[in-house]
Every structure is written in C-alpha cells, then in structure tokens.
Automatic annotation (TrEMBL):
An annotated Gene Ontology molecular function: ATP binding
SMART domains the UniProt entry points to: AAA (SM00382)
Segments forming domain ABC transporter: 9-232
Protein name: ABC transporter ATP-binding protein
Length: 243
C-alpha cells in the first residue's frame, strides 16, 4: 500500500536483527489513518518486533519508520501514540481508578478524562478494585483505559485478546471499531485468524517478511479461497513451491 497524505504509519525497508539472527527482513508498508490494520502471523514471525519498531522502542538495523509524519518514538509522538502490550502494563497494588488516574496525570489529563476512559472500557463497576485481583479480561480493559485516557491518534495493541473468552473478545473488537470510526488509527497484532475479518486491512507476516498486505476481501479473491485461514495457507504453499 503506497503512502498517501492520509497515511498514519509508514515503514520502509525495515530490518531488525536479534543477535546475529534476522527478525524482520526488509519489510515495508503504509497504514491508512482512521483504519484498523491487523498484523497477523504465527508466534515467532516478528509481530512484536514490528510493533516495537512502530512505537519506537525497538533498535533497528536499517530502514525507517514514521508515525504521523515523524520518526517513530520521537518526543512529539508521546501524547499522540499509545501502546498496549501483550502483558497488562498496570500496577497490581493500585485500584483501576488509581492506575488510570496515574497515566492521566502523566499526560496532563484530569480526573474527568480518567473516569471517561474507565467508563469507555466498561470498568466503571470495578473502578475501586485492586488491579492485581482482576481477571485477565479486566486487566486488559484496564490497560486499554490507561492508553485511551490520552485520546491517542494511533493505538498499537500487541495481541490484546489472547486468552480471553469469546464474549470479551467481541466487546473489545467492537470498541476497536468504534475508535476507528472516531478517527483513530489502530494496529492490532494477533495469531488468531478469525479476527482478521474484523480489520480493514491485513499484514500477514511469516518468518520476518510480509507475504500479504491487502484487504480481507481482496486477499480471499486473489487466492480463490472462502476464508482467510485458507488464504493464508494458500500463500504459504505458494511460497514453498517457489522455493
């Protein structure tokens, strides 16, 4: 996907090594503003490394990553880009309310913004509960509230639904779609192929390379398959035959 004036994330020829082993092998893409882009692939394919490069916490060997027109991780992006890690980034000895209030204060937001973020993720009834006593899904929601309190233009989520029951997964994806409708750009990683149809565009990553960068509908059409899991397998088999 070529960059446009409405591109929120632009990656060019990104190479990342871990030790002497290449993790990302010259990947390039452009993520349109106001969309949900799914980053899919098996464990070990390089998804978390790619995400860390986008938020500016990953040392890269070569290539460039720009977010909202600026180098990834640069100071002006700190209040515009939010990152929700795979493991909940919250303080277990603080309440939900205190956790969100802390992150709100870091970015100059007040109690009203913190309360709104908690309400937005459906955690108002648990606001006074200690984060350490929450279920996995509730911890994920609290982490999301801590990210949403800054009202980010770009929200990056690393496998936010892993291990969650189907009802919570559905609710979280509804929230992701609503954020995109309101103008935010979301990059969401997953290894669960049935989440792919919820995205506007898909980046399929395998062994450090993108093997697809397309819409779900166009990916199915290009591979002549009925579902995205079959499309992914079709692409892998084509690569294997080419090798």
């Amino acid at each position: 996907m070529p960059p446009t004036p409405d591109t929120a994330i632009e990656v060019r020829d990104l190479v990342v090594d871990r030790g002497k082993k290449p993790v990302l092998k010259g990947v390039s893409t452009a993520v349109a503003a106001g969309t949900v882009t799914g980053l899919l692939g098996p464990s070990g394919s390089g998804k978390t490394t790619f995400i860390r490069a986008v938020v500016g916490t990953q040392k890269v060997k070569s290539g460039t990553v720009e977010v909202l027109g600026r180098p990834a991780g640069s100071k002006p992006l700190r209040s515009r880009v939010a990152y929700v890690t795979q493991d909940a980034s919250i303080y277990p000895d603080l309440s939900v309310k205190a956790n969100v209030a802390y992150f709100a204060a870091l970015y100059g937001r007040g109690r009203s913004e913190a309360a709104a973020a908690i309400e937005r993720v459906g955690m108002a009834d648990h606001a006074d509960h200690l984060a350490g006593n929450l279920s996995g899904g509730q911890k994920t929601r609290t982490s999301l509230a801590c990210a949403l309190v800054i009202e980010p233009e770009v929200l990056v989520l690393d496998e936010p639904t892993v291990g969650l029951d189907p009802v919570i997964r559905e609710e979280l994806w509804d929230q992701f779609r609503e954020l995109a409708r309101q103008g935010a750009t979301l990059l969401v990683s997953s290894h669960v192929m049935d989440e792919a149809d919820r995205c506007d565009r898909l980046l399929l990553l395998r062994e450090g390379r993108f093997i697809a960068d397309d819409t779900p509908a166009d990916l199915r059409a290009a591979t002549g398959t009925a579902n995205l899991e079959a499309a992914f397998l079709h692409l892998i088999r084509d690569l294997e035959r080419a090798d």
